[in-house]
Specification:
By secondary structure, this protein is an alpha+beta fold. The protein has a four-stranded mixed sheet, with helices on one face. It has a three-stranded antiparallel sheet with strand order 1-3-2. Helix 1 crosses helix 3 and helix 2 crosses helix 3. The longest helix is centred in the first third of the chain and has 18 residues.
């Protein structure tokens, strides 16, 4: 039987739960436990982590337990604007640069026509555009820049 490092399992469980939030509008903790087959304490720890990172927020609404029994659960939802990233795609003579949120919604997008300066290593037109996007969105938490060629 193959063993896994606990930190790896923890990160995969967090990823699994966050992916549920990306595919659904709202979920309760018991819903997540049922859907993932994780224990409720494990789900609670993951939710606490996601809330601490502002990636998940409580919506304020409640939902009854199965069969109307038990305490009402609080609904949670994804906060897509908790973090952002810049994507850069260079294809031929064009560079597409965009700012996206956690759900992949495009916040800002630019297409640049590249010149022969790029062949000489001058990427200032690209870095200037990224710098302008960053300065216009200074209040948004950024995860990083992804480059695709």
């Amino acid at each position: 039987m193959q063993s896994f490092i606990p930190a790896y399992i923890k990160s995969k469980n967090r990823e699994l739960v966050f992916d549920l939030f990306l595919s659904r509008i709202e979920l309760s903790r018991p819903d997540i436990a049922r859907m993932t087959e994780m224990s409720f304490p494990t789900v609670q720890k993951i939710i606490d982590f996601l809330i601490s990172k502002n990636m998940v927020i409580e919506s304020g609404d409640t939902v009854s337990g199965e069969g109307g029994l038990g305490r009402k659960g609080r609904l949670l939802r994804c906060n897509p604007d908790a973090y952002h990233a810049i994507g850069l795609e260079i294809e031929g003579r064009f560079a597409n640069i965009g700012l996206v949120n956690l759900q992949g919604d495009i916040i800002e997008q630019h297409t640049l026509r590249l010149t022969d300066d790029l062949k000489n290593g001058d990427i200032s037109v690209v870095t200037d555009c990224i710098g302008n996007i960053l300065s216009r969105n200074a209040g948004r938490p950024m995860l990083g820049v992804c480059v695709g060629l």
